[in-house]
Each structure stands twice: as structure tokens, then as C-alpha cells.
Task: inverse folding
């Protein structure tokens, strides 16, 4: 009977908000170290919120004076975001304790970041959009620098904060332009005004779209607004990097899709040019810049930039098929990315973490299961069939072809082939290079569990893709009034 509860559409947010405040009090007033206890309750809160989101009604419900919307699109995004957050938190528990920066604030910040993300994807107003985005961003800034005794982590947090503040300014300026020319911050009202313009948007609105798109491109680390990504990924603690590469990226992409499709859907011809340029730039930088990397974390940063470009290919189509492709792609990307980071978190020798790609040499001989898990993730990211990553790219490229964007689809395929080089190079290093000293045995159940689930999903997705594809199709249809 959750569906009969008056505030049922707000249940995931209520669970996260109340849990976050309760866990903050628990950690602050506990006599001993409450990190493990708070972390366990935080994982439970994230899973409970995911369950609440999964059981939401398929009806579109607008609450909070029109600022909050619950629909199949938001439910799909929330389930993926919350499950990814829970997995990232599970992987981090033993690592944080071993590296000496386990603090109860860490899981609390992840809960509040997840709350901001769920508010973002349910935003139906430019003001609620900004509030959700800033709640997420402020939590992420602190998480990036949470290892206070590390100069690299402090630098990463500072860079992220300064550039994040710049993107927030761009977002506010763009939102003010859209508000000035439409007379409202509500998505539905803005959409009505844009439809009334018929032939084309006023120049001021176009400028507003450019600024908003630039700010959200920063949040998804799309080129040319990607400059923070490699430094933050490398400098932040590895569990934080794994979290950044999964849940916040998916949330920001979902927000970008909603903003462009709902209030600005009538102006697809205007914003498609921006999306096409950003997609091409991201795919090119992701394909070429990663080739020269020696740090596995920096390589994953450039990989994430490239994958955002592929997802934007689907968004450039500007139709229901394209949005379905984006959602399928991002869901698959998050799963295989978490699997890759589960292996990266296991890269340690004599209790010390190592991060260079060369350290993976001969891993197949010393730890064959670990090597197999990373190989599956790398092949999938390269788009090798029949792994899950192939289907993600298939759906976005087919959406571009259906929309007549043939050059964009061709560029995407070429970039994917080039990008396959550095993924396959990692597999070659693991299986054919002379062995480096063996890694310590994997004893963390969280990392092993996430790697196992990710590998199984990536390998077996082709056998039963229907549930994910149908859920993504229903979510996409909700944005287009279906």
C-alpha cells in the first residue's frame, strides 16, 4: 500500500534525508568509532530507497507546487543511482580502514550525495534542479578531499570545488536567461512557451541553453568541460573515484536528458548542435588521450569521458529511441565500471596500493579470477560482442542512424575502434607480459561481491536484455508523454 501513501512519490528522498540526519547524529554521539555501524545502516538506507523507487507508480505525479515530479524516468534513474551508490560504499569499507581514513562522515556524505542525485532526476523546476545539484556537488567536493593527510586528495578536492563553482555560475546564468525569456522556472510552463514560439527560439533562450548545457556537460565530464576529471580521478581516494565514475555521472546524464527533452524539447534543432559537438569532442578526447596514460585511474578518467560521448550520441537523436539508448548505455556503463574499479581497488602489494598499468603485468598467472574479471570489463568497454557494452553502443548508434545522424554514428564507431586499443592493451599486459610481483590476495568481500555481480551481468546480459531495455523504453516514453 505504499502507492496509497500521500507522500509515496517522495519516499526515496524521505528515506535518504531522515537516514542521513539520523546517521550523522549516531556518528557524532557514539562513544567509540561508529564507522562500520554507520556504513552498514547507510547501505541499508540506500537499498531501501532503491526499493521504494522501484515500487513507484507508473503514473506521472507532480508535487511540491510543481517543483518535483515522479515518473518512470525518475524511478529508473533513481534505482540505478542508489544501487551504484550502495555498491561503491560496500567496496570502500575495508579500503578506508586499511588506508587509515575511515570516518563515519564518509557514508553520511554518500547518503546526502545520493539524496541530491535523486532530487536532480525528479526536478521539474530550474530552482529545484539547482538545489539538488548543489546538494550533490557539495557532498562530492568533501568526499574528494576526505583524505586530509594526502596532498593529492586535497588538491583534487580544491580543483573540483573551484571548477564546480564555475559550472554552478554558468548554470545559474543560463537558467536566469531562460527564466527571463519564458517568465517561469517551471519545466512545463517553459515547454509551453517554447512550443508557442514555433519557428524558433529567441536568441536569449539559445544563449541560456548554451550556458545550461555547458554547466551540465561539466557535471558529466564531457569535453571540452572535462579538464577536472583526470586530476580528480587520480588524486581522490580510489573508492571515491569509483563512486564518482558511477552514480553522479548517471545522475547528471539523466538530468541533462530531462532538461533538454522536457522544457526544451521543442527546440531540439537548437540544442542538437551543441550535443553533437560535445559528443564528438568527448569521443575523440576519450579515444586519443587515454592511449598515453600510465596510471590506471587516469586511463579510467579518459575512458569515462569517451563513454559520455557515446551516450550523448543517443541524446543527439532527440527522440524516444535515443533516450532509451542513453539509459541502457549508462546503466550498462555503471555496472562494468564498478567491476573495473573493484579490480583497481585490489591492486596492492604488501599492503600498499599501486596504480600504474604496468603493475598488472602477468596478473592472469598470479590471480586468474581477478584478471578474468578485469578482462571482461575491458572487452565490454571496448564494445566487443556479445558482452553488455556492445549492446549499449548498438542502441545509441542505431538511434543516431534512425534520426539521420549518419556522420555522428560513423565517428562514434571509429572512435570506439580507436579506444579499443587501450582496453585491449590492458588485457595484453595481464595475459602476455612478464609477470610483475603478485598482488596481495583479495580478502574484502565487498570488492569480490561487486566484481562477481558485474562480471556475471556483463557476460550474460545478451541472454536476457529484455528487462533493462523495456524499463528504459518505459522511462523514455514518460518524457515524451507516452
Result:
Amino acid at each position: 500500500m505504499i502507492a496509497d501513501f500521500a507522500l509515496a512519490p517522495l519516499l526515496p528522498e524521505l528515506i535518504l534525508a531522515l537516514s542521513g540526519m539520523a546517521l550523522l547524529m549516531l556518528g557524532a554521539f557514539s562513544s567509540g568509532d561508529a564507522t562500520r555501524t554507520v556504513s552498514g545502516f547507510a547501505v541499508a538506507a540506500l537499498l531501501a530507497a532503491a526499493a521504494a523507487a522501484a515500487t513507484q507508480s507508473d503514473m506521472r505525479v507532480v508535487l511540491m507546487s510543481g517543483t518535483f515530479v515522479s515518473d518512470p524516468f525518475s524511478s529508473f534513474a533513481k534505482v540505478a543511482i542508489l544501487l551504484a551508490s550502495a555498491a561503491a560504499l560496500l567496496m570502500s569499507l575495508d579500503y578506508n580502514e586499511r588506508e587509515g581514513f575511515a570516518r563515519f562522515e564518509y557514508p553520511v556524505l554518500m547518503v546526502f550525495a545520493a539524496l541530491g542525485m535523486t532530487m536532480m532526476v525528479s526536478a521539474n523546476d530550474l530552482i529545484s534542479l539547482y538545489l539538488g545539484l548543489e546538494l550533490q556537488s557539495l557532498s562530492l567536493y568533501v568526499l574528494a578531499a576526505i583524505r586530509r593527510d594526502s596532498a593529492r586528495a586535497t588538491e583534487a578536492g580544491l580543483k573540483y570545488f573551484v571548477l564546480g563553482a564555475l559550472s554552478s555560475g554558468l548554470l545559474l546564468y543560463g537558467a536566469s536567461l531562460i527564466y527571463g525569456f519564458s517568465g517561469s522556472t517551471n519545466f512545463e510552463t517553459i515547454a509551453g512557451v517554447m512550443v508557442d514560439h514555433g519557428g524558433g527560439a529567441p536568441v536569449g533562450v539559445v544563449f541560456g541553453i548554451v550556458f545550461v548545457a555547458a554547466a551540465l556537460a561539466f557535471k558529466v565530464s564531457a569535453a571540452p568541460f572535462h579538464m577536472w576529471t583526470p586530476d580528480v580521478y587520480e588524486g581522490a581516494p580510489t573508492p571515491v573515484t569509483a563512486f564518482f565514475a558511477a552514480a553522479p555521472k548517471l545522475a547528471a546524464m539523466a538530468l541533462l536528458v530531462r532538461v533538454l527533452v522536457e522544457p526544451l524539447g521543442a527546440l531540439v534543432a537548437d540544442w542538437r548542435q551543441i550535443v553533437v559537438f560535445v559528443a564528438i569532442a568527448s569521443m575523440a578526447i576519450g579515444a586519443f588521450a587515454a592511449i598515453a596514460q600510465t596510471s590506471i585511474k587516469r586511463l579510467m578518467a579518459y575512458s569515462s569521458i569517451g563513454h559520455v560521448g557515446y551516450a550523448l550520441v543517443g541524446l543527439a537523436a532527440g527522440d524516444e529511441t535515443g533516450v532509451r539508448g542513453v539509459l541502457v548505455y549508462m546503466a550498462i556503463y555503471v555496472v562494468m565500471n564498478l567491476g573495473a574499479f573493484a579490480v583497481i581497488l585490489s591492486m596492492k602489494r604488501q599492503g600498499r596500493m599501486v596504480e600504474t598499468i604496468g603493475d598488472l603485468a602477468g596478473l592472469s598467472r598470479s590471480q586468474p579470477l581477478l584478471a578474468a574479471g578485469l578482462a571482461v570489463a575491458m572487452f565490454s568497454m571496448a564494445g566487443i560482442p556479445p558482452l553488455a557494452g556492445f549492446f549499449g553502443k548498438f542502441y545509441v548508434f542505431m538511434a543516431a542512424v534512425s534520426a539521420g545522424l549518419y556522420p555522428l554514428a560513423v565517428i562514434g564507431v571509429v572512435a570506439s575502434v580507436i579506444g579499443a586499443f587501450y582496453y585491449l592493451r590492458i588485457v595484453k599486459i595481464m595475459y602476455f607480459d612478464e609477470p610483475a610481483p603478485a598482488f596481495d590476495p583479495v580478502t574484502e568481500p565487498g570488492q569480490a561481491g561487486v566484481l562477481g555481480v558485474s562480471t556475471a551481468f556483463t557476460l550474460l546480459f545478451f541472454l536476457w536484455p529484455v528487462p533493462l531495455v523495456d524499463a528504459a523504453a518505459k522511462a523514455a516514453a514518460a518524457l515524451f508523454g507516452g
The chain has a mean pLDDT of 89. Residues 347 and 353 are 6 Å apart (CA to CA). The radius of gyration is 21 Å.
